[in-house]
Structures are given as C-alpha cells and as structure tokens.
C-alpha cells in the first residue's frame, strides 16, 4: 500500500527544503526536515564532547535527542538552536555522523513517526530509498553545483565571486561527494523517482511542478 508521503531527496542547497515546506503548506500536510535530525545529532555530540567518528557514542545521543519541533523553531535541551544548526561546520558534522550505520538506524523510527493521518512531505537524502519506500510520490530535486553555491551565497549575503564564494562551492561539492559515496543510504534517486532539475527554475515553478505531479497520481 502506498503511504501518504511525498518524498523529496536531493543534494545540499538544491532548494528541496524550501520546496518541500511550501508543498506541505499548500496540501496542509506535516513537513519533515530529516537533515535537521542529523544536524541536531552533530550539534548534540559536540555539546556532549562526543567525537563525530564515535559510532556507538553518537548513536546513543541520536536515539535520545531531547528535541522539540515547535512551529518554525527547533529546541534542543530546551534551547533554541534553529539558527545554530544551519552553520556550515554543523552541516559537515551532520554529513559525518550520517555516514555511520548505527546513527541512521537510531533515527529511522523517529523519522517514520512523523507520518500521521494528515500526510507528510519529507525531505532528505534517503526519504524515497530507505525511510519511506512506499511513498506515493518520489522526487529527486537537483541543481548544478554552481547554482546551488550561488543560492547558498545569496542566503548568507555573500557576493558571487571572491574567496568566500569559492569556499561555499568547495564545501558543497565535498559534502555531496561524502553523501553520494557512503556505503549506507547514499544520496541517489530511487528508481521510481521523478527527477526535477531546478537550475533554471524559480521556487514557485519548482513547487508548481511538484504539485502538478501530485495531482496526477
Ligand atoms: O539537508 P541537510 O543539508 O540539512 O542535511 C545535512 C546532512 O545530513 C547531509 O549532508 C547528509 O549527510 C545528512 N542527511 C542524510 N540523510 C537525510 C538527510 C540528511 O544523510 N535523510
């Protein structure tokens, strides 16, 4: 049986988070930002002085994340970490802990628990391949690395040239490489996923395309 889930996977800074949140809003569904769980795990490990490579140590933390999702805010141990988890080094930490099988395992059920009768739009790297293989609609949302770096730069108010931009581009390519080549749940389109390249699309056009596919199922 198909699940009432729209799974949206793709590389970092592809715009999948924004698109997924808007689609959820239009369809009045819940929204799961699965990357936030990996980011929270990386941040929590740092706070608890657990090394990002310590698989069993980090897995225990992942299992017991004291997190509350409240409207647009994310509270970890009752502290608002909404902005903190978006930092680039936490993104790298998320990518590191996400390569550990025990950590992925620890977060699996928590992710599935986000699905209620309301239905869900979930974004991440393995929503369609591992977490919700029965999703009613699977989308792999991409954009070229340069376009993604430009979007990230815009987000941080950085110009599209110069050393800071170069660093963003390098970081994006490095994180993608880690996510694509890891052994467990690598970033790749599900065989039944629709590919959406947003390099030349606005957010509104991307949202419309997803809704279009949804109306056709
Ligand atoms: O999407 P976001 O950039 O917030 O994700 C941070 C990192 O978490 C990714 O680079 C990836 O390594 C990991 N991740 C994952 N599986 C997911 C979501 C995120 O491995 N479903």
From TrEMBL:
User: Which stretches make up the Cytidylate kinase domain?
Assistant: 6-214
InterPro entries documented for this protein: Cytidylate_kin, Cytidylate_kinase_dom, P-loop_NTPase
Q: Which GO terms describe its molecular function?
A: ATP binding; CMP kinase activity; dCMP kinase activity
Q: What is its EC number?
A: 2.7.4.25
Main localization of the protein described in the UniProt heading: cytoplasm
GO annotation (BP), single: pyrimidine nucleotide metabolic process
Cite the entry's keywords alphabetically. Answer: ATP-binding, Cytoplasm, Kinase, Nucleotide-binding, Transferase
**SUPFAM superfamilies from the UniProt entry:** P-loop containing nucleoside triphosphate hydrolases (SSF52540)
Q: Name one GO cellular component term.
A: cytosol
Q: PANTHER family attached here?
A: CYTIDYLATE KINASE (PTHR21299:SF2), CYTIDYLATE KINASE/PANTOATE-BETA-ALANINE LIGASE (PTHR21299)
Assigned protein family: Belongs to the cytidylate kinase family. Type 1 subfamily.
Which HAMAP family does the record cross-reference, listed alphabetically?
A: Cytidyl_kinase_type1
This chain's protein is named Cytidylate kinase
């Amino acid at each position: 049986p198909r699940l009432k889930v729209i799974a949206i996977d793709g590389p970092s800074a592809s715009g999948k988070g924004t698109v997924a949140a808007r689609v959820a809003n239009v369809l009045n569904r819940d929204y799961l930002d699965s990357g936030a769980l990996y980011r929270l795990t990386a941040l929590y490990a740092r706070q608890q002085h657990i090394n990002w490579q310590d698989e069993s140590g980090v897995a225990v933390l992942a299992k017991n994340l004291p997190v509350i999702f409240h409207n647009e805010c994310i509270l970890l141990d009752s502290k608002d970490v909404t902005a903190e988890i978006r930092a680039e080094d936490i993104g790298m930490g998320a990518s590191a802990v996400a390569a550990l099988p025990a950590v992925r395992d620890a977060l699996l059920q928590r992710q599935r628990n986000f699905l209620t009768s309301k239905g869900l739009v979930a974004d991440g790297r393995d929503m369609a391949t591992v977490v919700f293989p029965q999703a009613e609609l699977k989308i792999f949302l991409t954009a070229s690395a340069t376009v993604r770096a430009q979007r990230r730069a815009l987000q941080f108010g950085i110009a599209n040239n110069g050393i800071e931009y170069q660093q963003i581009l390098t970081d994006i390519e490095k994180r993608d490489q880690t996510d694509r080549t890891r052994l467990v749940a690598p970033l790749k389109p599900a065989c039944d996923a629709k590919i959406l390249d947003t390099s030349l699309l606005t957010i509104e056009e991307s949202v419309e395309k997803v809704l279009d596919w949804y109306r056709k199922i």
